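Technical note accompanying the year-one report. For the benefit of new consortium partners, we illustrate the data format agreed upon in the data management plan: each record pairs a sequence with a structure-token string. No post-processing was applied to the example shown here.
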Amino acid sequence: MHSTDKATVLTGKRAAASFSDKARSGTIWIVVSFGGGQIVRLAANITLAALLFEEAFALMALVTAVMMGLAMFSDIGLKPSVVQNPRGDDPVFLNTAWTLQVIRGLVLFTCAVLLAWPMARIYGANDPLAHELLWLIPLVALGAIADGFLSSRLLSAARRMDVVSVTKIDMIVMVTSALLMVGLAWYLRSVYALALAGVISSALRVWLSYTMLPGPRDRFQLDAESVSAILGFGKWIFLSTLISFLAIQIDRMLLAAIFPLGEVGIYSIATSLALMVTVLNGALQSSIVFPWYSRMIEQGMPLQDAFTRSRIPLMVVVTFLVALLVSGASAFFELAYDHRYAKGGDFLPLLAVGVWFSSLSGIYGSAFLALGKSQWIAIVSAVKVLAFLCFLWVYLQFEHSIEMAVLAVLSAEVLTTAASQYLGWKLRLRNLPMETLMLLLLLVASAAGWWLGHHVLWLTDQPPFVRLVLLGLFQTCLFAPLAYRFVLPMLRRSVS
């Protein structure tokens, strides 16, 4: 081998090692911030539940669904484009992406204002409180304008896998948002406290994106070649996110039109708790796994090898967290909420198991995206939407209750995961034995924890906090060998 070839190979190995190190250290930061973030969010949500009425959570779930829907409908894949495109570090490319982002923010605000009146009319027919959507939606939509001016340095940080800096910004915004929500809710005793806190938090994130991240100043520019590259890559991102919106939000939007807002509000709280696992998995997928896959593929590593190295530690963590949620659901709602929210303890176990399946689909989704097969994500999301609608219709024929809707959510997640596995197998990403073992572990650990928490008298007689601690220790001991074998080695390499 020539000296030039040797130097090229050595450089490639060093680059691969550098990205692997960033992936491991970034994973630690995300996990730590996730743990701290969930403590802050839980404390805020518990306080808000005491200060506000349960319908407030249903109203904000609807507003969030509208804003998320508009954001996803207009998603042209700016972040994935910068991460994946070879010109992702080019100032012209970045300025073009930032300009498109600003335009998109203004369009989102306009669309939200136009949707406010029909949304208030439609949901107000089911519950008069929903007429507040006429003012809530435009207020929250101001955050879309602010988000449009987020610095392109955030996009560059995602490409460089600079998770540390981005995580610091997220933590500051999260703590500030929680304090604002609680303070404003105490003062206003109104759902508008949540909306105002969201807008102020968006403005804070914009300011921090310019002051805490290095990089050149953004300026308005629309380069034809860059626009073509972004839109060409983003067309499937657009379709997949459009369908993903329905996959993520269709349950709350549809249930709010069928059931009383009070019940939907409790369902929304249980869903937000279950989605904590999705938030962690999603952060790891978008900030670590997808960029790492992309860089490893550039360095010549087969996707199958990269997939094999990442999936087991992720599934161990997800399985452990879901087992915790299933085991401690009833005790947590008894401890944290008053009697109005008790039904959430029944919803959470099924929703948490559904999140386990969706997390598995997300792992496959990162692999699809790294290979540029964003259309496959659209296919998987479409399966989820259609499956939920079909299962909901069938189950409501037996019993018209929100419990049947929860069962429909779980059933749809199972079918969606099967679709992800089928597509993954076409890429030779075959993991059925490991995934089956993880599923069996989840079912055994969750069933054991649930049984202990409901049928062992000496445990059921304990205060809720004591039950939570004991059930948490039980699950920790159960998963400790797997964590020692698969998760700790990765963390040790990150620290060393």
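Partners are asked to follow this layout when depositing records. The chain has a mean pLDDT of 75.
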